Amino acid sequence: VRLVESGGDLVQPGGSLRLSCAASGFTFRGHVMRWYRQAPGKERELVATIPSAGGSTFYADSVKGRFTISRDDAKNTIYLQMSSLKPEDTAVYYCYAPAWDLWGQGTQVTVSS
After folding, report:
1. Residues 46, 69 contacting (CB under 8 angstroms)
2. Coil, helix or strand at residue 88
């Protein structure tokens, strides 16, 4: 069982990226999924949470209004659409499946001119 993130890149301030996290070996239908990030020299922080169905998404104050988390259970994939990116968004982004305590390997996002 594993999670594989993709979509990280170098982008200019104000730009956009979409991260993907694909699960293999298990299905996360019916379970909460999360995105975290860790910047150099800082602790890993929760960025966004998406419930299984019928609940509300959660966003860190620092990304609210700029990031959108979504899921496609048919593809066993979650997404993080990031817009209006800032240099302080630079970090390794990880997806996390709480029900399995399972982390992906991370994908690097660098926001710089």
Report:
1. no
2. helix
Residue given tokens 């990304």 in the structure block: 63
Furthest C-alpha separation in the chain:
40
Cα dihedral 36, 17, 9, 100 sign: positive
Please give the Cα distance from 90 to 99 (Å, whole number). 27
pLDDT for 53: 76
Two structure tokens written together for 12: 């200019």
pLDDT at 54 over 90: no
Q: What share of residues in the chain are helix, strand, coil (percent, to 5)?
A: 5, 50, 50
**Sheet with strand 67-72: strands edge to edge:** 2-6, 17-24, 77-82, 67-72
Q: Report, in angstroms and rounded to the nearest whole number, the Rg of the chain calculated over CA atoms.
A: 13
Residue 55, pLDDT score: 78
User: What's the rounded Cα separation, in Å, for the pair 95 and 37?
Assistant: 9
| Phi, psi angles (nearest 5°) of residue 7 | 105, -10
Q: Residue 101: what are its φ and ψ, rounded to 5°?
A: 50, 50
